[in-house]
Amino acid sequence: MTFILVGCGADIDRRVTFYRDEAWKAEMEIRFPADLVALLAASPESLEAEIAQQVAEWEAEGAQVKWNSSREDATLIYTFEVESEDLELLNEIVFEDNATITATEVDGRRQINFSYFGSRNLVGANNDTLTLQGGEIISSNGEKLNNGTVQWANANGRMNAVLTEKSRSGFATFFIVLVLGGLGGGLWYYRQKNSQSPPQVAPVQTAFCANCGTQLSPQAKFCPICGYKQ
């Protein structure tokens, strides 16, 4: 139901990240503009009920799904975040069972081989953007945004890519480890510093007059009381 409506003039943005061991995460945003909403045979409430039912089926197949609906003026916006470790399920949920996605190992590196031709349901989409992310884009016929990202916008024809899997531990994890290590080192230094014995203070020397016993400073040469020479 959702993809059929996309084919009627909605906008769709799909982003898929491939992780190690065939794990993946897909983020999708579908926007139904005001004129399309007016043509909906079903109400937004009934559409959301159908989406909720579809999400429940995805979860029953092993996917972890988060989704949300919102409005921007008269535009209906649906966002999905889906994760799993099943490439066939990725094909079903994100690519309408119209893609070929396989994992192979070449020269000791696992690679994702991706080939997709948009189904008829998406031909009439107003805008259709697909982004793939991995560790390294080895080859593709899309626009390479960086070393690990390739994108197709309103592509005509088949979309192909070969990319390696991405590690889930990136810069953010490194930064957290670095910060925690710095805090741990600072705490150790603080404890070490405060556990040291306080510095010993030399006792103040005291002198007394040999004649009358008056307390004198160590530097006194004469007693200020009796005048006796020290």
Query: What proportion of the residues form beta strands (DSSP E)?
Result: 35-45%
Q: What's the main sheet like?
A: 7 strands, mixed
In DSSP terms, counting alpha (H) and pi (I) runs of 4 or more, how many helices? Answer: 5
Note the overall shape: elongated
Radius of gyration: 36 Å
**Which class best fits the helix and strand makeup?**
alpha+beta
Mean pLDDT: 81
Q: Helix coverage percent of residues?
A: 25-40%
Main β-sheet, spatial strand arrangement: 3-4-2-1-7-10-9
- Note poorly predicted spans: 171-175
State the distance separating the first and last CA atoms: 111 Å
Order of helix and strand elements from N to C terminus: HEEHHEEHEEEEEEEHEE
Instruction: Find the count of extended strands (DSSP E, 2+ residues).
Output: 13
